[in-house]
Structures are given as C-alpha cells and as structure tokens.
C-alpha cells in the first residue's frame, strides 16, 4: 500500500491536530487505517423514546420540534426545546452550553437525534446528543467507531480521517496466501480494514478483528522463526567426558525432561548457532543440574561459563553446589559479587581475562564493566525474570556469540510463552524428580494456629526443618522487622530447645550466608524470615513452610515460597496462616494454592487475576507492538498463528513461492513500521 500519505491530508486535520494524532501513534494515513477503534456505537436500529430503558437509554429517531424556552443555569443561559417523536411521545432537549442552536432549532422543523435520555418526573429529557437534518448525518442505521482521543481531536474528525485514509489507500492488498482466507474463514484485508472501522454488524467487526489480529501474530511469529536456524542443520551430540563423570557421581538418575533439555542445549551449542533458550521448570524440577551438565559440555570444548543469580544468597548456594559437584572433575570455579573487592577482586578478574577460570558464578556484579573474559561461550541466568533485558544483554555482549540459557521457575502460560518468548527456543521440565510427594497445603485461620505450631513441633522431633515467613510490606520498613523479631521471640518460647535464627535483608550478606550454611548443616532447625528466602534456596530436609499473613502475598510469591519445601522424598507441608478479614481476591489466591501445586495452573490463574501487563511488564511493552491482537484474549488464535508460521517456515523459509508473496510484502511493511 502507499505508505507515504500524511494524516494532514485529511480535510480539517491541521497543524494542531497533527501533534494530537501523533500522540496516538498516527503520523501517516496507513497509521490511521491501523488504529483500532476502542469501541463501537451501534445506531443501526431506529429507537423511539419508548424503546429507551434504564439499562439501554439510547434513542436514535426522528423528532418534530414543538416549542422552546430559556432558563438560567450555572452554565449561563440555557435553551430548552420541546419535541415529539413519531409516536407523539414528548421529549425535552436541554442545550447546555449550546445556546447557539437557538437559531436552528425552530418550532415545526424536523430533525434526527441521537443520544441517551433520562426520565425526569415522567418526561423524557436529553442533554447529551447529536442532532442532524438527515438520518445519514446522524449516523442512524450505522455502527460508528469510537476511537481513543487526544487533545483537540473529536470523534467526528477521527471518523473522517479513517474514511479518508481507507479511501486513499484502497485497495489494501492481501497479506495472506489466498487459500488461508477460506481455510481459516478470514476476511480479505481490504474488507477487514474497512470493517474494523465501519462494520455493518458486530459480527463483521469481530471477523475483521480476528483477521487483523491473526495476521499480526502470524507475521510476528514468522519474522522470529525465519531467523531461527532450521532443525535440519542440527547435529545430535553426545555428552562429553566431564558430563559423564558428573552423571556417574550423582546418587540419582536424571529425569527424562532433564535429559531432553540437556540434549537440546548441547545440539544448539554444537550446531554453531547462537543459542537463546528458555529453560522453564516448576520449582524443584531440577533446573540447576541441567545448567551444570551443559556447563561441563562448554568447558570440555574450551569455553568459559558465567552463571548469574539474582541474589548473593542464591549465588553463594550455587557456588557451594558447584564446588561440591564440579571441582572434583577439575573445573576451576570462581565466585564474584559486589562485596569481592581489592586484591582478591583483581586476581579474580585477571583469571577470567586469562582464561584460568572455567566457571564463574555471581550476581549482577558479573556485568560490571571491568569484568572481561578470554573466551566466554555460555551464559546461564538463573531466575531470569528477576533481571532486566538490558542486564542480560550486557552479559551476553561480554562473550563472542555466547550461548544463553535463561532459567525460570515462574511458569508462563503457553499462550504467553509463545509470544513473549517468541525469540527464544524453549525447553520445559515438566516431570519432577522421582519420589517427590506433592506438598500438602493447609489454610490456617486465627483459631487454628495452635494446631499448626504443634504439627511443626512434631516435624522437629523427626529431625526435619522449617521456615516461618513474614510478609515484606512495602520497602522493608522498620515495622516489618518488628514483626519478624516479635515472631522470632514468640517461636523461641514455643520451641524452647530448638535452635533457630532470624534472617532478613538488613543483615550483612556474610551473616545471611553463614546462617544458611548452618541451616543446611542442621545446626539450625528453623529460620524466621522475610521473603528473602523466596527464590531458589534448596534445603532438602526442610519439610515445613509456614507463611504468616499469607493473604498479603501474591500468587507467584506463594508458589515460590512453597517451593522451598518438598524438595526431597520426605512428605512436606505448607501452612498458609491468614488473618481475617481478607479480600475476595486474597481468598481466590489462597484457595488456588490449596487446590493445586501445579505451577502452570497457578500461573494461568495469576494471569486471570492480574492480567499479563503486570506479570510481564517490561518485556511486553518493550518488545511487542501489537495493535489488534491481545495476548490473553484469544489463546487459540495465538496457537493457530504459531502453527501456521511453523508450517510456512518448514515449507518455504524464504517465502519465495508465488502464493507466499503477500506474506513477504506484509513482513517488509511490518519491519519498515517497526523501524520508524
Ligand atoms: P529448581 O528447578 O527449583 O532450581 P533445583 O535445581 O534447585 O530446582 O533442584 C531441586 C533439588 O532436586 C536439588 O536438591 C537437586 O539436587 C535435586 N534433584 C535435581 N535433579 C534430580 C533428579 N533427577 N532426581 C532427584 N533429585 C534431583
Ligand atoms: Mg533454582
């Protein structure tokens, strides 16, 4: 289509309107055609006064004016016109701020009026209305689009602009291969654009929207999939020497999903194409092991590996784990955080630069500027949702086309994963390691706390450990601390001989770490904590998670916290203690937690409750420019687009076949759009 036309060509769209259009993202006529009406105003049927009801007070009909009078109101002199419709029912028209209508609204004249009426002492009144000489002008018999507005823009101007743009760009070419329209019952594009702005029925608007949304999703998936290496080039590759050694040293065997994920990563690495892979697996599914295994693969090939975790606590835990599992295989490991300073930092940086460190584990200190590598080939990001896109990019740039593995325990519903992570390949750990028993969850009201404390006491006698968690309110204010501290005192009295510790984010990092070590070594039996322990901590003998004020936590946090237990073959328990009264939303969250331990199910629920914007915030706004499609609106449509895109790329990656020419053109247009 002709992309050159400017919105200022529309009659009545002057200099002032230009800026207002721009704030809606409309610069060209093509932008206008792509602006989705936010709603429609259905004026199809003539509605007489007696058709108006409280729930649908709109009228659209012919009236005859009978008389007029004036009265004073706050807005000055106000004109009041009386009229009747074709049934002879009376209407009072109140022209607030429209005294100028006086010269036109003369008794005896006939008009078409559109608006919403109110009944006042048995008389219909209208004060917000459009009044025109003809049915056509009043829009009666049509469905009118309602657009988002900005500044001086009016719906009237927007409608004119849409009609003008459609006319100027007509005929808008098809974006899809001919056969797809029929097979998927879509509208041809010229018609679809016309119908999204000026539909003649709600069904038509619906079909137009479906067409445009589908097209948008298809093009996005296509542009991503075409850049991804084809599976044909992949070479299956075997575990390397060190990997086999690690596998032999483990007291258990990998789950099938762990094996498959490791295979996929290895294939990517050996295929010589830059890997960007998301490893999704619910809490406790064993993602770390997949990371270590594939790290060994890279190291065996002479590459360096960087492993980044969101907190110092977690980074330390991983470093300890790596020291235990990987050092015996001859892997040279280093640990870096912001608190590594001075001479030890200098030596560490030098070893990275020289390549005498194989694996470095750390926090975001890893992407500080002075960190450089000799041959960084593999970057692993734990709990990837805790990092920003820029932070991930910064680390990637330190390597030369390094493979990237992003791990996440925040399960993303499939529909979202397909779109938000369209530029990633995805591996999923769905199965849990053998012998795991689902955590049993109890909702505990005020009156039943005692029972809960004694159940936990029984677990202590069995030599099992527990967490007691208090919510973090706001930004770690003093009051939260008081809560945890008084809780700590309370529990000490409750369990007089059981060793415990208080852990919260105000403690210096080395203190946090030594507490965690003592807990792992069972010198401590329970921790009283704020949600610092939310992410990643792995202590197999901890079997009780007590969450106080559970009503104040979000679903994702609750799921993460519960994931701290049930990490071995021991039966384990999660107590969600709440304090009434609680909101409906909180009630919904707690009952979902009781109902299921399936992270995917919980994520879908979370999506329903909070909407995708909040969950994926940054990623969604930074990466997708969707005009017609909504990610959660129609999961089926997203999947349909993905399937079609996969088929097309399989059959005609270059889009060279004649029937795919429309797609090739539309993709080019889309790319041009995104560059603007
Ligand atoms: P997450 O996926 O939540 O990061 P981790 O990687 O921390 O989970 O693993 C959780 C626990 O499960 C760890 O203690 C780990 O050693 C253990 N684990 C991992 N894989 C297996 C397996 N195949 N069989 C048994 N236990 C396993
Ligand atoms: Mg983990």
Looking at CATH, which topology of the domain at 241-429 would you report?
A: Rossmann fold
Shape: globular
Name of the top-level CATH class of the domain at 241-429: Alpha Beta
CATH architecture of the domain at 241-429: 3-Layer(aba) Sandwich
Mean pLDDT: 87
Distance between the termini: 16 Å
* Protein structure class: alpha/beta
- What hetero molecules are in the model? adenosine-5'-diphosphate, magnesium ion
Topology:
Layout lengths: L14 H9 L5 H5 L5 E4 L15 E16 L2 E10 L4 E6 L14 E11 L2 E10 L10 E4 L8 H15 L8 H6 L5 H9 L4 H26 L13 H9 L6 H15 L5 E6 L5 H14 L3 E5 L3 H14 L7 E4 L5 H13 L4 E4 L13 E6 L7 H9 L5 E6 L5 H7 L4 E5 L10 E5 L4 H13 L3 E5 L8 H17 L5 E4 L5 H12 L5 E4 L12 E6 L7 H8 L10 E5 L6 H12 L3 H12 L1 H12 L11 H18 L8 H15 L1
Parallel strand pairs: 4-6, 8-13, 8-14, 9-11, 9-12, 10-11, 12-13, 15-20, 16-18, 16-19, 17-18, 19-20
Antiparallel strand pairs: 1-7, 2-3, 2-5, 3-4, 5-6
Helix pairs in contact: 5-6, 6-21, 6-22, 7-9, 8-9, 10-16, 13-21, 18-19, 19-20
């Amino acid at each position: 289509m002709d992309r050159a036309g400017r919105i200022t060509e529309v009659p009545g769209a002057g200099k002032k309107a230009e800026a207002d259009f721009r704030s809606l993202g409309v610069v060209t006529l093509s932008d206008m055609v792509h602006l989705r009406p936010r709603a429609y105003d259905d004026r199809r049927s003539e509605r007489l006064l007696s058709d108006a009801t409280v729930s649908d007070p709109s009228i659209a009909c012919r009236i005859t004016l009978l008389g007029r009078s004036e009265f004073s109101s706050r807005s000055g002199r106000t004109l009041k016109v009386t009229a009747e419709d074709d049934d002879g029912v009376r209407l009072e028209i109140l022209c607030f701020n429209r005294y100028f209508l006086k010269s036109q609204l003369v008794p005896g004249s006939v008009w078409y009026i559109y608006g919403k009426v109110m009944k006042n002492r048995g008389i219909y009144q209208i004060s917000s209305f459009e009044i025109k000489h003809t049915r056509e002008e009043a829009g009666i018999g049509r469905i009118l689009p309602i657009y988002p507005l900005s500044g001086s823009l009016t719906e009237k101007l927007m409608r004119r602009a849409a009609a003008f743009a459609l006319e100027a760009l007509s005929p808008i070419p098809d974006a899809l291969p001919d056969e797809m329209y029929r097979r998927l019952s879509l509208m041809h594009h010229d018609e679809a654009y016309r119908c999204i702005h000026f539909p003649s029925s709600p069904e038509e608007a619906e079909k137009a929207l479906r067409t445009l949304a589908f097209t948008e999703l298809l093009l996005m998936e296509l542009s991503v999939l075409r850049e991804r290496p084809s599976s044909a080039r992949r070479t299956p590759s075997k575990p390397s020497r060190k990997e086999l050694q690690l596998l032999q040293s483990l007291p258990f065997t990998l789950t099938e999903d762990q094996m498959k994920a490791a295979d996929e990563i290895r294939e990517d690495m050996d295929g010589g194409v830059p890997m960007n892979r998301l490893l999704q697996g619910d809490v406790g599914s064993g993602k770390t092991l997949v990371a270590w295994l594939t790290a060994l693969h890279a190291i065996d090939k002479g590459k360096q590996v960087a492993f980044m975790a969101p907190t110092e606590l977690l980074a330390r835990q991983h470093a300890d784990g790596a020291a235990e599992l990987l050092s015996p295989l001859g892997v040279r490991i280093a640990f870096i955080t912001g608190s590594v300073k001075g001479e030890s930092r200098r030596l560490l940086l030098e070893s990275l630069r020289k390549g005498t460190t194989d694996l470095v584990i750390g926090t975001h200190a890893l992407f500080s500027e002075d960190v450089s590598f000799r041959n960084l080939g593999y970057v692993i990001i734990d709990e990837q949702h805790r990092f920003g896109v820029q932070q991930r990019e910064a680390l990637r740039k330190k390597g030369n086309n390094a493979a990237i593995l992003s791990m996440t325990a925040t399960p993303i519903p499939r529909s979202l994963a397909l779109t938000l992570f369209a530029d990633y390949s995805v591996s999923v750990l769905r199965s849990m390691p053998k012998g795991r028993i689902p955590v049993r969850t109890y909702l505990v009201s005020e009156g039943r706390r005692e029972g809960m404390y004694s159940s936990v006491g029984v677990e202590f006698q069995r030599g099992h450990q527990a967490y007691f968690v208090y919510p973090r309110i706001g930004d770690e204010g003093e009051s939260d601390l008081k809560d945890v501290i008084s809780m700590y005192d309370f529990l000490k009295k409750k369990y007089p001989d059981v060793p415990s510790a208080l852990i919260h984010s105000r403690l210096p990092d080395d203190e946090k770490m030594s507490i965690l070590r003592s807990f792992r070594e069972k010198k401590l039996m329970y921790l009283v904590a704020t949600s610092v322990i939310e992410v990643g901590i792995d202590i197999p003998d901890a079997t009780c998670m007590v969450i106080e004020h559970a009503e104040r936590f979000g679903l994702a946090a609750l799921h993460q916290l519960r994931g701290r237990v049930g990490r071995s073959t021991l039966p384990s328990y999660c107590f969600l203690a709440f304090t009434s009264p609680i909101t409906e939303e909180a009630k919904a969250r707690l009952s979902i937690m009781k109902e299921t331990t399936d992270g995917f199910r919980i994520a879908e629920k979370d999506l329903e409750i909070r909407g995708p914007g909040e969950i994926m915030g940054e990623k969604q706004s930074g990466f997708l420019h969707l005009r017609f499609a909504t990610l959660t609106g129609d999961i089926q449509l997203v999947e349909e687009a993905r399937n079609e895109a996969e088929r097309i790329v399989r059959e005609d990656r270059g889009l060279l076949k004649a029937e795919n020419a429309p797609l090739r053109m539309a993709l080019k247009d889309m790319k041009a759009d995104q560059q603007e």
